[in-house]
Amino acid sequence: MAASKDPRPCSIADTLALVGEKHSLLVLREVCLGNGRFDQLVRNIGAPRDILATRLRRLVDAGILVKQPYSERPQRFEYRPTQAGLELEPVLMTLMAWGDRHLRGDGDRPMVLEHSCGQALAPVVTCRACGDEVRHEDLTARPQAPGWTVTGPTAA
Amino acid sequence: MAASKDPRPCSIADTLALVGEKHSLLVLREVCLGNGRFDQLVRNIGAPRDILATRLRRLVDAGILVKQPYSERPQRFEYRPTQAGLELEPVLMTLMAWGDRHLRGDGDRPMVLEHSCGQALAPVVTCRACGDEVRHEDLTARPQAPGWTVTGPTAA
DNA sequence: TACCGTGAGTTCGGATTTCCTACTCACCGG
DNA sequence: CCGGTGAGTAGGAAATCCGAACTCACGGTA
């Protein structure tokens, strides 16, 4: 059997089709950090300039970034996150937390996010409805399209 | 200036180096859903078999998945998430929530995750220390390595 | 026994992407 | 006039990805 031509319909896949290409999420990281200029992005991300240009176009088209002039004469631009872009920050936070936890010995975190409460941020995903921390065992997947089953009873 | 050879040290980048290749997070999605067999993965993800084989090896090496036999004679395997793999689920949840919100008109969500509280899951990222929902403006980035500044005052 | 089907991959050549280096173009400051 | 900066584009080599076909071990069935 070949790779199916119509895989499971899924918002994860759709989102990754927009921001899952190499470097895209790092662009978003820098832009959220306030480093939105082209050469800053090149330096801080380490991506070739041409891919960066391609990624930026795509992210702007998708409404995740906007390209704003910060100086006329000479024309200079800066990329900034839109509201939709900012709403992707939780993805970055959870990725960073995972990397800090699993890829590094403690004490060598390359960056700490400080929350307004004064503590270093440890992000926790909770349920909007009940407020509890979400754990794998507490989830049941309900595919809405026919034919797309899920095998595990405690599926997520 | 060329693409810098030493970009910003960052756990987001490190994590993406492991799970950011094409299809990797979809593998994790299926495995978390309980669909851990090779041909299920091929069908549900829509990736070529050889790439899937490569991704699976990499994810197993990284300790995100384990390859477990579910039948001797004939030998048959199933991939399952490790604890570390399960800890990546928040990334999937936030990606899915974003896609549902921004890429689809309401009412056509391809999958709903039901939380044990009985409601459809709407994931919210909160601060472990104070419990509040984390918002962009409440974060301050503190790079730990020298030279890696952040320009915005309200950087995240 | 012969044959077909399934699970779990591997192999192959070709199509895409990415990468790297260099180049452009517009402007500014001295 | 000269060098530097910001924001890219151009071109070819290198790495990845893709689709289809092939393997191999087994199990069922007729």
From TrEMBL, chains A, B:
Q: Which SUPFAM superfamilies does the entry link to? A: Winged helix' DNA-binding domain (SSF46785)
| InterPro entries reported for this sequence | HTH_HxlR, WH-like_DNA-bd_sf, WH_DNA-bd_sf
Superkingdom of the source? Bacteria
Segments forming domain HTH hxlR-type = 10-107
Keyword terms of this UniProt record = DNA-binding, Transcription, Transcription regulation
Give the matching Gene3D superfamilies: Winged helix-like DNA-binding domain superfamily/Winged helix DNA-binding domain
Q: Which PANTHER family match?
A: TRANSCRIPTIONAL REGULATOR, MARR FAMILY, TRANSCRIPTIONAL REGULATORY PROTEIN
Q: Which protein are we looking at?
A: HxlR family transcriptional regulator
Q: Which organism is it from?
A: Streptomyces lomondensis
